[in-house]
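Appendix B, Record 12. Input sequence as logged:
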Amino acid sequence: MRLWSLHPDHLDAKGLVAGWREALLAQKVLAGATHGYRNHPQLVRFKSAPDPQAAMSAFLRPLAEEAAARGYNFDRGKIIPGPLIAAEADVADPGPDLTGLGFVDARHAPAAPAAVDGPAPASRSDPEAPAEARVPRIPVTEGQVRYEAELLLFKLRMRSPKTVDAFEALLRSGLPRLHPLFRLVPGEVEPWEKVRNDL
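Logged structural output:
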């Protein structure tokens, strides 16, 4: 199981599909719907969130959005409904009204520091919702993001060589974008990470 801290737009097709399947499995685990994987290290940060199930729902929605942008049809009905994260609720250009699906299109959400864990305006799907109903963003360390970027690069070299040059160029210019659920904090690789020695 790999629940990437990186933005889903960095993933190749196989990574995006695998990430979706694994996040759906994680959602089942957090909902108590399966007995396997309950102690998987990738779930540590979700379990420590104030509302683990809401955090997992907020993790899944951007994966479905990225899939839709690529023309894939991930079944959003499999996502257990939950509150939005600030990056989803505080969008400058929300695009078409998707409230019937229970979420706000966060594709053009600004990466503004004000959206991090602070009060977020109510979403279009629930204009009366208090800011406290938002899912707080989960911290992820710089070291973890660097490790995941190297791991993704390793995987891209094997299964999607055409994307390697662009991703390497991105890494030379700094850290890759994060999944909207996460916020960057200083630190080494997270203690729950099972670090590979062959990268």
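The radius of gyration is 16 Å.
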